[in-house]
Amino acid sequence: MKIKALLMSLIIGFFSLSTMAGHPEHQGDRGNHRDMMFYKIMKKMDLTSEQKSQLKSIRAEYKPLMKENHEQVKAIKKQLKSLLKADVLDESAIRDVHAQMAQYKSNNLIIQTKMKRAMFQVLNEEQQKKFKQLKHKKHQHGQHSE
User: Fold this and answer.
1) Which of 2, 11, 14, 143 could disulfide-link to 138, CB 3.0 to 4.6 Å?
2) Lowest mean pLDDT: which of 15-24, 51-60, 79-88, 93-102?
3) Within a 10 A sphere around the Cβ of 80, how many other Cβ atoms?
4) Are 113 and 65 in contact (CB under 8 A)?
């Protein structure tokens, strides 16, 4: 039973690593994609220049935190990958490293949520309604919102 559970966790870990890591040639494009989505939304929201400035300031405030967290996750993924490829299976080390990754992912989720909430507060009531409609429309089409 333990071997079956370990194999399942290794398989899940491997697939989560491969899907999270993405293709190396696209790694640098993620930030640009997010920036483009951000600017698309800004255009649709009819923001004042003051609101645009506030949103850029909020993004600038949170960007270093997200980057630092992202770098930590990359290092942990690398460590986990080497543990999974090792000749000797160290279950304890794999569990420890996987727990670290989960912690950093939770941190990233919290940072992103705080940033999005701060940005949402910059919008007036009409813009907030419009944003919610755009977000709902994206989810209906199966797209993720930024």
Assistant:
1) 143
2) 15-24
3) 21
4) no
Other CB atoms within a 10 A radius of the CB of residue 144 amount to 8
User: Distance between alpha carbon 28 and the CA centroid of its chain, in Å?
Assistant: 14
Residue 40 has pLDDT above 90, yes or no: no
SS3 string, the chain, reads CHHHHHHHHHHHHHHHHHHHHCCHHHCCHHHHHHHHHHHHHHHHCCCCHHHHHHHHHHHHHHHHHHHHHHHHHHHHHHHHHHHHHCCCCCHHHHHHHHHHHHHHHHHHHHHHHHHHHHHHHHCCHHHHHHHHHHHHHHHHCCCCCC
- Please give the domain boundaries of the chain with CATH numbers for all domains: 31-140 (1.20.120.1490)
Residue 97's contacts (CB-CB under 8 Å, 6 or more residues apart) are 76, 79, 80, 83
**Among all chains, which residue has been given the structure tokens 């000749």?**
87
Q: Is 116 exposed, middle or buried (0-12, 13-18, 19+ CB in 10 A)?
A: middle
